[in-house]
Amino acid sequence: MKSTLIIGAGGVGRVVTHKCAQLPETFGKITLASRTKSKCDCIAAEIDYPIDTVAIDADDVAATVALLNQIKPDILINVALPYQDLTLMEACLEAGVDYLDTANYEPKDDPRFSYEYQWPYHHRFVDAGLTALLGSGFDPGVTNVFCAYAQKHFFDEIHTVDIIDANAGDHGLPFATNFNPEINIREITAKGRYWQEGEWKETEPLEIHQAFDFPHPEVGTKDIYLLYHEEMESLCKNLNGVTRLRFWMTFSKNYINHLTVLQNVGMTSIEPVDFQGQQIAPLEFLKSVLPDPASLGPLTKGKTCIGCVIDGVKDGKRLQKYIYNVCDHQEAYAETQSQAISYTTGVPAMIGAKMILDGHWKKPGVNNMEQNDPDPFMEALNQYGLPWEVVDGAPFLEQLQKHNP
Ligand code: NDP
After folding, report:
1. ipTM of the prediction
2. How far is the CA of 387 from the centre of ligand 1 (A)?
3. Which of 41, 217, 251, 325 could form a disulfide with 255 if both were Cys (CB 3.0 to 4.6 A apart)?
4. How far is the CA of 292 from the centre of ligand 1 (A)?
5. Which of 17, 64, 79 to mutate to test the pocket of ligand 1 (most atoms within 8 A of CB)?
């Protein structure tokens, strides 16, 4: 029987555990480990399938190796935080276990997340005959696979990709982030960046924005903001001939107002300040007073819509495609007790792990999603809760021409 170890009992860990438990023939014995064991127990109690639970500090390589040697899993699904990526990769190499994560490494004291920390592990994973699959969430993750699918089936050459991430859900609270607030706020308050003609162009945080009319009527027209996002780092290397890559995310005016005030008063800083003799990073303190993203599940109504508008050439003719998924917050909650942000990350993490365990994506080395055959993954998205659509991308690219550098 196969054995699966999931590390991280947050919003995404909850979805991964629910979804893996739905496929016992693939995942076999499931262990959920995290820093706080009671959170693992709480998730295990929701599921009608035996889940072993363990406390682990994933920053501690020796402790993680000991756990891996005891459980002997076929795969480690890392849905803790990006800070744990390197220690968990080290532990997997030492114990001989395949590895998967959903976000690239970021040093805790330096908000510059990048694959540059994880790609150098490639030869060590090749030599060990082990697979490390990076970024198997939605974005990064499914968006990379959408690009690989477009490259395989629709285009001879891809020229531009606009990745657009809409959360049209409403939780009714004045301000809350949909996933880990620290990671989320660090991402949004950073400078924007896009790839253009072989180099990165930088913008001020949230400087470029516009209205965008989404293909689903319940999502409608939303303001989208240009951000740097990690999938562009691998796509600019792996999509042949791509000349422009941009990433956009929706934010409401209310969200931006709250964030602006928090930023103006210094609450989003990661620089520790002295408070009554204690060193406290304002952003970490802010996290502790904001709603726990896991608590948003029962409150959130509405849909997400995430996908790629792709422009390129097929048989000498210019062509555009828009590939996207629409996910409903309440349906996600009914199935996994998590809202759609955790659901759209946890389902692809489960599918990525299934691709490795089934052998489709068992490929020694450190791989990004688009370096694998997209077809079995795309089929699994339809099967396991994230169905996708492909429509003519021309009217959507036209909307995006407003900021056509
Ligand atoms: P949460 O903050 O809800 O959960 C993180 C979990 O990791 C918590 O249970 C936490 O434990 C645990 N953890 C933190 N540090 C350690 C440690 N040292 N050892 C063991 N466990 C630890 O985050 P999410 O579930 O929202 O996100 C999980 C991951 O998914 C993140 O890396 C995030 O960046 C990524 N993500 C990816 C997306 C994508 O589309 N690719 C989208 C959204 C998220 P404790 O509760 O004790 O603090």
Report:
1. 0.99
2. 25
3. 251
4. 12
5. 79
Taking the C-alpha atoms of residue 342 and residue 10, their distance in angstroms, rounded to an integer, is: 9
Sole residue written with tokens 């409403």: 170
Tell me, using a 6 A CB cutoff, whether residue 64 lines ligand 1: no
Structural fold of domain 142-336+387-400: Dihydrodipicolinate Reductase; domain 2 (3.30.360)
CA distance between the termini of the chain: 54
Q: What is the pLDDT of residue 105?
A: 96
Find out whether the beta carbon of 337 lies less than 6 Å from any atom of ligand 1: no
State the span(s) of the chain assigned CATH 3.40.50.720. Answer: 3-134
Distance CA 17, CA 337 (A): 11
What is the gyration radius of the CA atoms in the chain, in angstroms?
Answer: 20
Q: Which atom of ligand 1 is nearest to the CA of 138?
A: 40
Rounded Cα distance between 79 and 346, Å, is 8
pLDDT digits (tens, 9 = 90+) for 285-337: 999 999 988 788 899 999 999 999 999 999 999 999 999 999 999 999 999 99
Best CA proximity match to 18, nearest among 333, 367, 319, 356: 333
Q: In the numeric block, which tokens belong to residue 137?
A: 């969430």
Nearest of 398, 102, 114 to residue 232 by alpha carbon: 114
The residue whose CA has the least distance to atom 3 of ligand 1 is 10
Half-sphere exposure of 135 (CA within 13 A, CB side): 29
Token readout for 197 is 């003609």
pTM of the model: 0.94
* CATH code for residues 3-134: 3.40.50.720
Report the mean per-residue pLDDT for the chain.
95
